[in-house]
Amino acid sequence: MAAEPKDTPGVVAPPPLIYLGGLVVGLVLDRIWPAPFMTARPVAGTALVLLGVALMALGIREFKRAGTDYKPYRPATRVITSGPFRFTRNPLYLSLTVVYAGIALGLASLWALALLVPVLVVIRYGVVAREERYLERKFGGDYLRYKESVRRWL
């Protein structure tokens, strides 16, 4: 008899750790092999970090209002369609991407910016795709209608 699937999407790793891993590796590589033509943009970097943190706060607020958990390794109890979820299906991952880019830009780390691409590939296939399959299984037509009406990122 086959085991009942767990009530989680089975993501490859917690998304903040995926972003943090790419950022740390990029910053270490930048210390070893700095890009001579990259200059720090602290104002732009700070603005991006603040924008990302604000978006994250709005997304987490909607999870709390809906009474469901934002951690992808815990069961979802409903599809959220309010707040930033009206514009993007993944406001928390979008916010982590903006924060990551802001830190890399503010610290002039070309390596970190370059590593954002593979980080996003891991997020797309190791996290988002798994979450979407899970939500389709769990919520069926409700999630499919939401998915058809709202873009994944922006």
Q: What report would you give on this structure?
A:
This protein has 154 residues and is mainly α. It has one domain (39-149). Helix content is 64%, strand content 0%. The chain is built from 5 helices and no strands. The protein has helices at residues 15-32, 42-66, 91-106, 110-139, 141-149. Helix 1 (15-32) packs parallel to helix 3 (91-106) and helix 2 packs antiparallel against helix 3. The longest helix has 30 residues, at 110-139. The chain starts with 14 loop residues before the first helix and ends in a 5-residue tail after the last helix. The model has no long low-confidence stretch (mean pLDDT 94).
Key terms for this structure?
154 residues, mainly alpha
List the helices and strands and how they pair.
Elements: H1 15-32, H2 42-66, H3 91-106, H4 110-139, H5 141-149
Helix pairs in contact: 1-3, 1-4, 2-3, 3-4
